[in-house]
């Protein structure tokens, strides 16, 4: 709760009169977690939020493998050492996959990763709304995940995320404590072109 209010102070929308939901700029990716478990009933709403994401042909290509308890300990093996250090206190590790082909015709779904990214963001925002840590990860061995969990080639391993209860940053190693704060962003003018042109280097 306290960490959320810190985030609200640091991150601001573009100007004070740009009215966007505070959820967008108060969500961030902490690493400090308490090690407490989170019951299924508390995790479920995050996936309910993911459920309503838009997707091409409403194909809903996202899949989430949820690992808690003993399964979570096994999935820790997938992570790079940096991520192992802070994920040990997560309540759950999630493996995010997407189906490469459409269900209705088995043809390649061009936007399967894009669609699954939308679902992941919904999950992350709902987690933030509930004061949970939801932290995305690329730092793991993708091949090991595919082999260990026997993921067929028709699915893409997109990312992992850690979910847990907030904790004070003192639970983290010193170098991570210094990074334990919401990060900044590019200006809108750096990623938007209003002239209908591609003008980035
Ligand atoms: C797909 C993805 C992969 C990421 N991989 C890692 C990771 O392996 N380890 C880590 O500590 N943070 C990871 N992050 C967190 C990002 O560094 C973080 O989201 C980014 O710096 C923006 O900060 P914010 O989420 O606090 O706004 C990842 C985030 C995403 C979305």
In short:
It contains 9 helices and 4 strands. A 4-stranded antiparallel beta sheet has the order 1-2-4-3, sandwiched between helices. The protein is of the alpha+beta class and 201 residues long.
Q: Top keywords for this entry?
A:
201 residues; alpha+beta; NADH Oxidase; four-stranded antiparallel β-sheet; 4 strands; 38% helix; globular; binds flavin mononucleotide
Structure commentary:
The protein is about 40% helix and about 15% strand. Helix 3 (about 40-50) packs across helix 6 (about 110-130). The chain has a domain at about 25-165: 3-Layer(aba) Sandwich (NADH Oxidase), CATH 3.40.109.10. It has 9 helices and 4 strands, in the order αααβααβαβαβαα. With about 200 residues, it is α+β, with helices and mostly antiparallel strands. It has a 4-stranded antiparallel sheet with strand order 1-2-4-3, sandwiched between helices. The longest helix has 18 residues, at about 110-130. Bound molecules: flavin mononucleotide. Flavin mononucleotide (FMN) binds next to strand 3.
Percent of residues in helices? 25-40%
H/E series, N to C?
HHHEHHEHEHEHH
Q: Hey, roughly how much beta strand do the residues contain?
A: 15-25%
Structural class: alpha+beta
CATH class of one domain, named: Alpha Beta
Shape by Cα distribution: globular
With strands numbered from the N-terminus, the spatial order across the biggest sheet is 1-2-4-3
**Biggest sheet architecture:** 4 strands, antiparallel
- CATH superfamily (homologous) name of one domain: NADH Oxidase
Total helical segments: 9
Q: Report the average pLDDT across residues.
A: 94
Distance between the termini: 41 Å
Second-tier CATH architecture of one domain: 3-Layer(aba) Sandwich
| Heteromolecules bound | flavin mononucleotide
Unreliable residue runs: none
């Amino acid at each position: 709760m306290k960490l959320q209010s810190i985030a609200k102070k640091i991150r601001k929308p573009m100007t004070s009169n740009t009215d966007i939901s505070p959820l967008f700029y108060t969500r961030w990716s902490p690493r400090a977690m308490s090690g407490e478990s989170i019951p299924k009933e508390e995790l479920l709403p995050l996936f309910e939020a993911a459920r309503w994401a838009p997707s091409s042909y409403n194909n809903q290509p996202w899949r989430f493998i949820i690992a808690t308890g003993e399964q979570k300990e096994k999935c820790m093996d997938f992570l790079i050492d940096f991520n192992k250090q802070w994920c040990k206190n997560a309540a759950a590790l999630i493996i995010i996959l997407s189906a490469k082909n459409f269900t209705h015709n088995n043809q390649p779904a061009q936007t399967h990763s894009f669609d699954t990214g939308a679902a992941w963001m919904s999950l992350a925002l709902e987690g933030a709304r509930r004061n949970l840590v939801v932290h995305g990860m690329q730092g793991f061995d993708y091949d090991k995940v595919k082999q260990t969990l026997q993921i067929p080639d028709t699915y893409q391993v997109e990312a992992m995320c850690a979910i847990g209860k907030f904790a004070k940053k003192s639970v983290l190693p010193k170098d991570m404590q210094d990074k334990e704060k919401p990060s900044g962003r590019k200006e809108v003018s750096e990623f938007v072109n209003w002239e209908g042109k591609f003008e980035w280097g």
